[in-house]
Amino acid sequence: MAEFSTWNAGGETISIRKDLRAPMRDGVELALDVYHGTEDKPRPALVALSPYGKELQALALTMPPQRRPSPMWDGCIEAGDIARIVREDYAHVIGDLRGSGDSGGEHIGNYNAGGVSLGQDAYDFIEWVAEQPWCDGNVGMVGISYFGSMQVLAAAERPPHLKAIFVSGGHYDFYETTYHGGVMWFMPRAAREGRGGDSGWAFTDRTKSRMLERYSPEELKKLVAERLRDPDVAAWPNLVHTLNYPKHHEAWFDIVMNELDGEWYEERNPITLAPNIDIPVYLQIDQGRGWTMDGTIELFDALKGPKKLDIGSYPPMQSRPFIEEHEKMFRWYDYWIKGIENGVMDEPAVSVFVEGSRKQVTGSAWPPKPVDYRPLYLRPRRKLSPEPEPMGTEYAAPDGFYQAPLTVTDKVEILSWSTDAFEQDTELMGSGAAHIFAEIDQPDTNFILRLWDSAPNGTRQLITTGYLKASHRELDADRTTEGNPYHPHTRAVPVEPGVVEEYVIRLYPFAATFRPGHRLVVELSNDEPLADEHNALLPPDAFHLPVGRPVTHKIYRDAAHPSRLVLPFTTGEASQG
Predict the structure, then answer these.
(1) CATH: 3.40.50.1820, 3.90.1150.10, 1.10.860.10, 3.90.1680.10. Which one for 3-173+267-347?
(2) Which class would CATH give 371-570?
(3) Which residues are 46's β-sheet partners?
(4) How far is residue 434 from each of residues 388, 427, 502, measured CA to CA in Å?
(5) FRET pair for 246, CA 20 to 30 Å: which of 120, 350, 382, 517?
(6) Shortest CA distance to 483 belongs to which of 382, 349, 371?
(7) What string of H, E and C letters represents the secondary structure of 56-80?
(8) Per-residue pLDDT tens over the stretch 119-144
(9) Which one-letter DSSP state was computed for residue 565?
């Protein structure tokens, strides 16, 4: 039963329509709440859709924004600043996706609900909103992360009344959201189950696993047994539990069971759908979580209509409740929805905050400046140098480390190499690569690289990261270019122990200026520390599956094995064409 009430927020009264029902084309109804001003008139609407529960989003009216590492930070309160949206004279519409919260229907799998794509539901939802007396027929969307991905899925369906979208912090290629370089990331578990700083999806007993729907019990038993042969998976208690009791962890079970890229992930990949989008799109992302930057840039390049790309500053996690970027969002929607000439389209298409110099660089494409990919070679005595090592292996003996599994140790072994102190400002902007010649004594390991800006006073800031599961080392030769490796992740090829292999690791996009006296430091490990300057800013579950077996690593960096970073040094001014 729909309810109407009011709420006083900072002296302003907000009208609230609770528990409305929007019918989908198959008869399922989605639940929604609407917030708008008290004046009885139609307004443009900003729609927020997710499985996180509309009641949770209402905390934006009563909870001051929290930043990590606050223990009150909750990653699922992402629908936006209700009071601010109402004050700008938009109707804020917050809906529960199919199979979640108070909505009907079943949710099966990722970005797919009961055989109905979430984009199709978003189309029906938006068109229903546009017909309501409190809406003037013009619709945009709002919200970050899952809410952001829903914007792209909706726009790809081309609902007639959706005029523009503004996406901040979205996740796109779902394989890259769940496996970084083939290494499993635990944050999707937090999103589903409500662990480590997330309330989780507001799902009911109408949530189902696509794997359980697709395979017979006998087939599934064999597939689960095969997955448990991975020692990384078998050593992690939560994964053992998930695989043995999948009905308790439906979505997480599906992710764990699909460790390779392919049809399961591509079916609803927002980047694959991007060429269908013809409305104006503003994409915003902050530095510090490289895979989201990578996906945002890939989506930007795939879009055909009016578009903007805004890359913001570190740190990587926005407030919860989400309140950032609203000024930019309202300028975008005031222009495209309200028709206000505010000059937003007279500005360059790409804007990038550069760490270090703390300057804003603008241009017409990413990266906004021309770059020259140059190597920095790993050298003896943990040095990084523009010059390659002249000596052979017998003289430039390999570096190495032995990593015991985290079942028996708390220590993560880390190798590092450093440049000399920079003598002048040195700007880098783009993606990068690490070519690591390594020998391991097991069929698999992880390679985790992290690049830091180290200041003379000892403080440091993360610049970018790279991940690669050794068995996923295959490259797509047609898509790989200098400084931009591409791994298909469609099969795992075990490593032959004792053989030196070249591993090319993608370094996620970044923009940084190293100031005089600062050094560039690269760290290499096969697990990651759970607490340091960067990880302390992330939710507790935002780390990667550790290696479950003991591994000895030898890192060769001699004349025959030129281990190196390949980095994007800027060479000129930004193009504003």
Answers:
(1) 3.40.50.1820
(2) mainly beta
(3) 92, 140
(4) 14, 18, 10
(5) 120
(6) 371
(7) HHHHHHCCCCECCCCCCCCCCCCCC
(8) 999 999 999 999 999 999 999 999 99
(9) E
